[in-house]
Backbone:
């Protein structure tokens, strides 16, 4: 009987402890508790990004929680700030420049403290600005929840990763013509451009022929007289390329 009594007492104590110390941290709309876990965000731009957390009070008592922000590993060019307030605060709470020091804790003066009753929540909105960090980078923050800024009740990690987009290498435009001198034909091949306008001009500047060219083209020159001619490639939106060709039958 004594053993059963002790077991029941232990069970009740554990139950009461868990019931009194339950805090849920969720991404708004997810209904998934990520307390003590890591929330990861992949950045596709260096524009500022906002991430919100709902910190739900299921402890059975009212708290005036404070947020402590700790930079675990953050690129030196990145900055951050946070806003902290009651979930019902239509103004989003009070915002702080949290990059002042590390670790950093929201103030505890009466003008910013607020009650979070049981079953209510506080909203933490984090804003991180990668600035012009145009190489691969990752920021790791940790946000602690406490009543006094020292004895932490729970936490959540935030990891933001930015991978610089690889800029496509623009192929240099070039034009190859052969054979040169030519007797019967010339083969014109373009690199770095899909289409252009082609003109063949004589030494006096008279246009002999004009047509479109797509990547490459074989031109019959068997009817041209011996002499010097110019192949003019007009590429839309860029420079005109001219090549000299000698016709020799």
Residues:
């Amino acid at each position: 009987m004594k053993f059963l009594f002790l077991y029941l007492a232990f069970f009740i104590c554990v139950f009461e402890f868990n019931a009194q110390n339950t805090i849920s941290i969720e991404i708004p709309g997810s209904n998934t508790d990520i307390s003590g876990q890591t929330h990861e965000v992949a950045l596709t731009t260096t524009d500022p990004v906002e991430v919100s957390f709902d910190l739900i009070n299921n402890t059975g008592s009212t708290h005036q929680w404070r947020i402590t922000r700790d930079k675990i590993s953050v690129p030196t060019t990145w900055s951050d700030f946070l806003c902290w307030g009651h979930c019902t605060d239509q103004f989003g709470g009070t915002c702080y420049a949290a990059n002042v020091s590390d670790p950093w804790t929201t103030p505890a003066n009466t003008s910013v403290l607020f009650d979070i009753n049981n079953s209510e929540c506080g909203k933490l909105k984090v804003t991180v600005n990668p600035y012009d960090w145009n190489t691969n980078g990752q920021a790791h923050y940790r946000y602690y929840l406490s009543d006094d800024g020292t004895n932490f009740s729970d936490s959540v990690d935030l990891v933001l990763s930015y991978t610089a987009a690889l800029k496509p290498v623009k192929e240099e435009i070039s034009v190859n013509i052969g054979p040169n001198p030519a007797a019967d034909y010339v083969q014109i091949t373009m690199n770095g451009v899909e289409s252009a306008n082609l003109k063949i001009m004589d030494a006096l500047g008279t246009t002999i022929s004009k047509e479109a060219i797509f990547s490459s083209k074989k031109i019959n020159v068997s009817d041209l007289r011996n002499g010097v001619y110019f192949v003019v490639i007009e590429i839309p939106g860029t420079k005109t390329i001219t090549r000299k060709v000698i016709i020799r039958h």
Summary: Confidence is low (pLDDT under 50) at residues 1-20. Residues 83 and 95 are 4 Å apart (CA to CA). The domain at 174-247 is CATH 2.60.40.3080 (Immunoglobulin-like).
